[in-house]
């Protein structure tokens, strides 16, 4: 166990693992996986509506009879969010709600009582745009990745449009581009943006806007956000190259600046070797850009930062200067100049913090910004991506522009990964008969209401594809069988052990030691015969022809914590402990006060052998190139420094990070209908208590073989 295990980034070298196979690069549609739940489909639909409105329809507006306009994305997205609760239940964080009302009330007080003049409509727009921050939807880790993959795919499409625009203006003229200013009535368009902008002032060539974007700087920023999502979640080399190339093809600096400011955070979560590979990819793109003159074009505009009235000066220099000037007035601490009173027009682009501070006062700005940061980072699926969004909004966004605020909602605050999702399939099999001499199973045992999570990361495979991906892991010269989560299904365990014995008998010899059977934890709870299963496992140790080993699962850990009075038992009971108590002839209490008495009952009837076995379970087992563990391992942490909590409970952080290690991690804990995995890991938890399928895997130095019992 002297090996160090790091799991923080995907290897991009095809020769690094002999197990790598073209099958792992198959499209998701060809990968056998369970379908998304109804709730996930609704969440994906809401995300898709917001994404299409914020990109494809970004330039479209809805004219108002009284004059003015409303960006079409605003009613579209608000309607999607409003209809969502009809189909699925939204979530509300009290801190989000409280923070919103606190910021709004302080801003209202500053406006109505301290400001010399104000625009009430500006204050109402402020409240309306940020109200969606109060709501969020929980979805599976896989569906969150689907949403982010949709963002990336849409932006890849716009990269293609950008390339087409370059080719059209080289072959014909930029005037041959589809031009929404000419195709649609002016009242149906968002005004006051540089839709058509020359590469260099006076040039006959124009910067591409991908037709749909208000101006090229926004196209550049959205591509940079998609590139950040790809770096954080997927790290697919081809897509990284295409997105980076698209970013350079825009010939705009704001997206590149956003990436430059956040790249240290994006690469900091990777192992050094893989960060170097990512940097190498970006450097190759930059070299090509240099040869094409991209840096000459961008550097020619660097003096804009010093020139008053220029785009760069108004975007990055003036907001800071105006903020410093305002804070020289002591009244600026609590009072501003009034809602909607900051200078407008002439390309003014005020940072959100600057606008709030100047119009409502510094205290309001601090409260508001602290609330925005809380909404972005609290339970963020990927904090590195949340950081990118914060930088984007802070320095390249505006306070009351719909596409800026709704992008922050859509990509940053709307989605949170749920700890569990609804059960997709329950076993229709009757409860198994109890073997002769078994401990009694109480008829009053309550069924567990746990769930099978949705498929984890896109790219995981099962069946024959999984066998090909895993290749021929090193078993250290041993014949080894690993069995997934049992959860009281002694009937399935008996059948699978019989299959394993038959397989051992039929398997050729020549191994260094006797066969080994490794159990991957979660022997108790949820299923009907936890006590009987422990008794059966203990009896197997009398068979000296096989080495029997078992690792600790989170359910055994919870039971021991209850026995030791380190937990009340209520949470354990809700997550399947009631069935374990029933298998020992104890009825779970109906009230919180009854759990102390239940603990004493369990201590009285629990056989000493069971108690000793539960307390002696191993945390992990290493054999050859295999590591057996219940839930997984924390990415980037050496094996000897792994926390027990992660070993027993980790899910998304492990399953969402590609494995970069010499070891194959064999685990359970996160169930699906069948074994699944990716290069470097395999999960054998097939949800036996719910699906009626128990899974094992054979490791013998050759291809992995999967065995099941039903």
From TrEMBL:
The keyword DNA-binding does not apply. SUPFAM superfamilies: Metallo-dependent phosphatases. Residues 480-676 form the Calcineurin-like phosphoesterase domain. The chain crosses the membrane at residues 42-62, 68-88, 95-114, 120-137, 149-172, 210-233, 240-263, 275-297, 356-377. Pfam families: Metallophos (PF00149). Residues 13-29 have a biased composition (Basic and acidic residues). Residues 1-32, 422-458 are annotated as: Disordered. Keywords: Membrane, Transmembrane, Transmembrane helix. This is Calcineurin-like phosphoesterase domain-containing protein.
């Amino acid at each position: 166990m002297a090996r160090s295990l790091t799991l923080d980034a995907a290897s991009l070298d095809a020769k690094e693992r002999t197990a790598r196979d073209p099958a792992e690069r198959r499209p998701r549609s060809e990968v056998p996986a369970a379908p998304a739940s109804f709730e996930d489909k609704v969440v994906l639909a809401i995300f898709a509506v917001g994404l299409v409105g914020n990109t494809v329809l970004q330039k479209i507006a809805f004219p108002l009879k009284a004059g003015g306009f409303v960006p079409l994305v605003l009613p579209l997205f608000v309607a999607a969010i409003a209809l969502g609760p009809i189909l699925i239940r939204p979530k509300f964080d009290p801190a989000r709600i409280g923070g919103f009302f606190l910021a709004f009330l302080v801003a209202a007080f500053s406006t109505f009582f301290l400001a010399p003049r104000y625009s009430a409509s500006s204050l109402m727009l402020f409240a309306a745009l940020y109200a969606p921050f109060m709501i969020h939807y929980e979805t599976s880790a896989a569906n969150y990745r689907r949403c982010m993959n949709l963002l990336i795919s849409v932006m890849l499409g716009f990269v293609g449009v950008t390339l087409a625009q370059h080719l059209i203006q080289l072959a014909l003229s930029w005037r041959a581009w589809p031009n929404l200013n000419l195709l649609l009535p002016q009242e149906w368009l968002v005004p006051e943006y540089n839709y058509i902008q020359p590469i260099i002032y006076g040039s006959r060539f124009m910067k591409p806007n991908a037709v749909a974007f208000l101006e090229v700087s926004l196209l550049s920023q959205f591509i940079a956000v998609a590139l950040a999502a790809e770096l954080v979640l997927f790290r697919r080399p081809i897509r990284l190259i295409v997105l980076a190339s698209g970013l350079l093809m825009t010939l705009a600096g704001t997206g590149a600046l956003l990436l430059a400011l956040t790249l240290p955070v994006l690469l900091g979560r990777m192992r050094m070797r893989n960060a170097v590979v990512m940097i190498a990819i970006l450097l190759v793109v930059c070299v090509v850009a240099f040869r094409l003159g991209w840096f000459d074009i961008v550097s020619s505009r660097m003096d804009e930062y010093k020139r008053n009235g220029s785009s760069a000066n108004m975007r990055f220099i003036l907001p800071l200067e105006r903020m410093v000037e305002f804070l020289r007035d002591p009244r600026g601490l609590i009072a501003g100049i009034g809602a909607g009173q900051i200078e407008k027009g002439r390309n003014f682009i005020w940072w959100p913090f600057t606008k709030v501070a100047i119009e409502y006062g510094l205290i309001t700005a601090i409260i508001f910004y602290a609330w925005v940061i809380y909404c972005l980072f609290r339970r963020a699926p990927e904090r590195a991506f949340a950081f990118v969004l914060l930088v984007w909004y802070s320095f390249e966004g505006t306070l009351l522009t719909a596409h800026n605020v709704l992008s922050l909602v859509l990509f940053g605050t709307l989605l949170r990964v749920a700890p569990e999702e609804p059960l997709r399939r329950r076993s229709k099999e009757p409860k198994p008969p109890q073997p002769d001499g078994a401990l009694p199973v109480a008829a009053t045992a309550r069924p567990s209401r746990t769930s099978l999570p949705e498929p984890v990361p896109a790219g995981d495979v099962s069946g024959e594809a999984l066998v090909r991906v895993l290749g021929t892991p090193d078993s250290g010269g041993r014949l080894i069988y690993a069995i997934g989560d049992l959860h009281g299904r002694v009937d399935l365990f008996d059948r699978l052990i019989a299959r394993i014995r038959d397989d051992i008998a039929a398997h050729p010899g020549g191994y260094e030691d006797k066969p080994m059977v490794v159990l991957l934890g979660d022997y108790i709870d949820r299923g009907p015969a936890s006590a009987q299963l422990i008794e059966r496992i203990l009896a197997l140790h009398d068979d000296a022809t096989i080495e029997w080993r078992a690792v600790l699962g989170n359910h055994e850990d919870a039971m021991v914590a209850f026995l030791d009075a380190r937990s009340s038992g209520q949470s354990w009971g809700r997550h399947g402990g009631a069935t374990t108590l029933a298998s020992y002839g104890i009825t779970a209490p109906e009230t919180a006060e009854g759990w102390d008495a239940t603990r004493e009952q369990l201590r009285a009837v629990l056989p000493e052998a069971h108690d000793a076995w539960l307390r002696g379970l191993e945390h992990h087992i290493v054999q050859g190139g295999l590591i057996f563990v219940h839930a997984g391992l924390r990415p980037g942490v050496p094996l000897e420094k792994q926390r027990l909590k992660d070993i027993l409970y980790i899910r998304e952080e492990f399953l969402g990070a590609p494995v970069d290690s010499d070891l194959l991690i064999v685990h359970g804990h996160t169930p699906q209908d069948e074994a699944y995995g990716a290069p470097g890991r395999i999960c054998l938890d097939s949800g036996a208590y719910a699906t009626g399928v128990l899974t094992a895997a054979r490791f013998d130095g050759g291809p992995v073989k999967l065995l099941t019992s039903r």
